[in-house]
């Protein structure tokens, strides 16, 4: 009887010991991540992950414009961490998920597009810094409108004001679908907007670049092709003394060149595609171009301008040029 009692007491002691050790281990030894939070310093956000001592880990970090994914591998079994963070409105959410006994996947999604500025880690911390990317605002000016029809095709009877408006709206829709741009139109219907009113819209919209859309006309009906205009080097501007004018002109020419490098892939261009003209619509506070989609005085171009497929190709060329422009511009 005494032997049985002794065995029972011994088993209880052993059971309690292992229960205590496992409980302690689950709470401390196997909980690898101590804290996860977002800090902010001016425009820079930082994801901070603190680890308990003794948990060696190997991180693999994959970053995207709207989130990040990270895989953490440990040398011993771990448990899912507790989640507690302040997101400052930029984080849509995140979660940890276990893979096997000793791996975690971490996923974070953002409410805005971001650019990552720094990644670092020690044996106890991971720090990943990023900042929100402000979407460029593209101002699209559909030439003419209302009582000002612009040029008229002698072949299909269509007016410049209608072609420019349709193209402007289609370009707006394409840019918005990418999620990379904000868009402002100087007109979105068949109405007359004076040049002064257009310039007022452009200068007050905090835009990144202006694209003014037109069709060309030439007395020689054999001439055809697309071209793009920027201001000439010696055009007068109220911004010239501040140096802003020359910087904007340089950017305008760069965008024009990106566009015309792509256009020959799908349509004819004029001999001198990138041109300059002292055009009032271009005399504003941002980089600006005026695009002649084609010669409405030419039969081939007239039919192309009424083709949705042609306009889609022209719009894709503008999108290509915009994407390349903002990858290389110092915004």
Question: What does this protein look like?
Answer:
This protein has 331 residues and is of the alpha/beta class. The chain has 2 domains: 30-132, Immunoglobulin-like (Sandwich), CATH 2.60.40.3500; 137-328, Zn-dependent exopeptidases (Aminopeptidase). The chain is 31% helix and 32% strand. It contains 6 helices and 14 strands. The protein has helices spanning 2-29, 160-178, 195-204, 244-262, 299-305, 308-328, and strands at residues 33-41, 44-51, 57-64, 67-74, 91-99, 103-110, 114-121, 125-132, 137-142, 182-185, 209-216, 226-230, 269-276, 288-295. The chain has a 6-stranded mixed sheet with strand order 10-9-11-14-12-13. Helix 4 crosses helix 6. The N and C termini lie far apart (87 Å). Mean pLDDT is 86; it is low at 6-29.
Keywords:
single chain; 6 helices; 331 residues; 32% strand; Immunoglobulin-like; 6-stranded mixed sheet; 4-stranded antiparallel sheet; Aminopeptidase; alpha/beta
Question: Topology of this structure?
Answer:
Elements: H1 2-29, E1 33-41, E2 44-51, E3 57-64, E4 67-74, E5 91-99, E6 103-110, E7 114-121, E8 125-132, E9 137-142, H2 160-178, E10 182-185, H3 195-204, E11 209-216, E12 226-230, H4 244-262, E13 269-276, E14 288-295, H5 299-305, H6 308-328
Parallel strand pairs: 9-10, 9-11, 11-14, 12-13
Antiparallel strand pairs: 1-2, 2-8, 3-4, 4-6, 5-6, 7-8, 12-14
Helix pairs in contact: 2-6, 4-6
């Amino acid at each position: 009887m005494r032997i049985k009692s002794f065995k029972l007491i011994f088993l209880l002691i052993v059971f309690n010991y292992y229960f205590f050790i496992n409980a302690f281990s689950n709470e401390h030894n196997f909980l690898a991540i101590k804290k996860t939070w977002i800090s902010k310093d001016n425009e820079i956000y930082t994801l901070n992950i603190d680890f308990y001592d003794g948990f060696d880990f190997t991180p693999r970090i994959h970053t995207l414009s709207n989130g990040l994914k990270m895989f953490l591998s440990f040398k011993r079994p771990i448990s899912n961490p507790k989640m507690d963070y302040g997101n400052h409105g930029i984080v849509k959410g995140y979660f940890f998920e276990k893979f096997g006994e000793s791996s975690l996947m971490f996923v974070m999604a953002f409410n805005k597009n971001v650019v990552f500025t720094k990644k670092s880690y020690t044996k106890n911390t991971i720090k990943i810094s990023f900042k929100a990317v402000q979407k460029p605002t593209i101002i699209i000016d559909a030439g003419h409108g209302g009582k000002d029809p612009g040029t008229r095709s002698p072949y299909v009877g269509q007016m410049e004001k209608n072609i420019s408006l349709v193209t402007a709206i289609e370009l707006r829709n394409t840019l918005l679908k990418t999620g990379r741009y904000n868009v402002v139109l100087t007109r979105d219907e068949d109405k007359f907007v004076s040049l002064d009113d257009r310039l007022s819209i452009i200068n007050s919209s905090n835009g990144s670049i202006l694209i003014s859309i037109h069709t060309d006309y030439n007395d020689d009906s054999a001439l055809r092709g697309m071209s793009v205009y920027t201001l000439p080097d010696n055009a007068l501007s109220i911004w010239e003394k501040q140096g802003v004018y020359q910087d904007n002109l340089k950017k305008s020419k760069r965008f024009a060149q990106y566009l015309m490098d792509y256009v020959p892939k799908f349509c004819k261009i004029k001999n001198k595609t990138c041109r300059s003209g002292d055009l009032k619509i271009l005399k504003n506070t941002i980089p600006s171009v005026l695009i002649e989609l084609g010669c409405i005085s030419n039969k081939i171009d007239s039919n192309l301008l009424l083709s949705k497929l042609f306009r889609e190709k022209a719009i894709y060329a503008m999108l290509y040029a915009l994407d390349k422009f903002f990858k290389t511009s110092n915004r």
